[in-house]
Design the sequence.
């Protein structure tokens, strides 16, 4: 087992009920099986990101509209992908993309990809999130930091992605102590390169660190392998059954 920092959650962290947050598959024409599988009844999905072309694209895409519609009809939140470029993306561009997502795909909220994590950027992120909430009733906002941000971000987003990276880092990761002041529903972990034989261990880490939203895949990043999130993990049925029944330590 990896060394983890124990927090005040203690043993209760093993009782966290886990669900999936899908960071976005390839286009439905490229990954039709993946998108169809997500709409299967009983899959413990919390949200799915729709990323047409690093954003909403230049015009409505009927294939993406159909895929998003199936998920929304199944009661799954569909989130638009907004790349903040770690704070370098102009505010107006982000809001313009958000309007396109709403007009074309009726999204339920947004994931702010490559969201800044430092204290200095917090006011700008708050401004963006406040504007997004004004556009969508009950908008669900996921801040995609990929690391533990300044604690102030916990008061801005509905969920914070506090880990996004490879299994080789995740299995030795440590949780920031301030996260113990918030419920597990506020945190998400996205991990690629997780071997099938380590799924139970990965799920225990997520529970211990107090993250109730996860996405684990055996796909890997780099070396020409493409985006590890673009296709479904080879053990999808296996991990769905494990999450559905729960894994205790």
Sequence:
């Amino acid at each position: 087992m990896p060394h983890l920092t124990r927090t005040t959650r203690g043993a209760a962290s093993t009782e966290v009920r886990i669900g999936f947050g899908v960071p976005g598959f390839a286009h439905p024409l490229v990954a039709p099986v993946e998108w169809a599988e997500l709409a299967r009844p009983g899959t413990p999905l919390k949200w799915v990101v729709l990323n047409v072309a690093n954003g909403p694209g230049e015009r409505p895409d009927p294939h993406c509209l159909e895929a998003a519609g199936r998920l929304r009809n199944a009661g799954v939140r569909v989130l638009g992908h907004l790349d903040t470029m770690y704070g370098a993306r102009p505010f107006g561009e982000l809001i313009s993309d958000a309007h396109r997502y709403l007009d074309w795909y009726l999204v339920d909220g947004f994931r702010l990809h490559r969201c800044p994590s430092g204290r200095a950027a917090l006011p700008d992120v708050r401004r963006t999130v406040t504007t997004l909430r004004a556009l969508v009733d009950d908008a669900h906002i996921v801040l995609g930091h990929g690391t533990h941000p300044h604690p102030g971000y916990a008061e801005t987003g509905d969920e914070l992605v506090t880990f996004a990276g490879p299994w080789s880092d995740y299995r030795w990761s440590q949780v920031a102590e301030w996260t113990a002041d918030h419920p597990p529903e506020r945190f998400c972990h996205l991990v690629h390169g997780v071997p099938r034989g380590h799924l139970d261990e990965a799920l225990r880490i997520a529970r211990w660190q107090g993250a109730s939203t996860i996405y684990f895949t055996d796909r890997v990043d780099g070396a020409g392998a493409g985006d590890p999130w673009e296709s479904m993990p080879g053990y999808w049925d296996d991990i769905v059954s494990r999450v559905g029944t729960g894994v205790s330590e």
